[in-house]
């Protein structure tokens, strides 16, 4: 039972603001990467099967999108570390 935090279907690499939550597993969409982090228990029951299918659908969509890109680069730059903000209080 995946929960989407956006109104449309998860389309890998399509935007910078779409996330999907599956248990404690988070999938974040970016234009140059899809970040997957956290954990999910795939239990041996109907709920586990539902979660496994949802996870498989996300991974299948990522693979399909990558395979369809004729100009897929050999690599992308790692994400930039967050910058330091000026403290307005001190």
Distinctive features:
1 helix; four-stranded antiparallel β-sheet; 4 strands; 90 residues; alpha+beta
Give structural notes:
The mean pLDDT is about 90. The termini are far apart. By secondary structure, the protein is α+β, with helices and mostly antiparallel strands. The chain has one helix and four strands, in the order ββββα. Strands 1-2-3-4 form a four-stranded antiparallel beta sheet, with helices on one face. It has one domain (about 5-70).
The unreliable regions are none
- N-to-C CA distance: 45 Å
Q: Structural class per helix/strand content? A: alpha+beta
Number of contiguous helices: 1
In sequence order, what are the helices and strands, one letter per element? EEEEH
Spatial sequence of strands, sheet with the most strands: 1-2-3-4
Quick overview:
The protein is an alpha+beta fold. The chain has one helix spanning 46-68, and strands at residues 3-4, 19-22, 24-29, 34-39.
């Amino acid at each position: 039972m995946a929960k989407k935090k956006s109104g449309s279907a998860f389309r890998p690499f399509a935007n910078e603001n779409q996330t999907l939550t599956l248990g404690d597993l988070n999938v974040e969409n970016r234009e140059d990467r899809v970040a997957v982090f956290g954990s999910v228990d795939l239990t041996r029951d109907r709920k586990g099967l539902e979660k496994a299918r949802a996870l498989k659908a996300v991974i299948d969509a990522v693979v399909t999108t990558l395979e369809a890109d004729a100009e897929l680069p050999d690599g992308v730059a790692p994400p930039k570390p967050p910058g330091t903000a000026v403290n307005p209080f001190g």
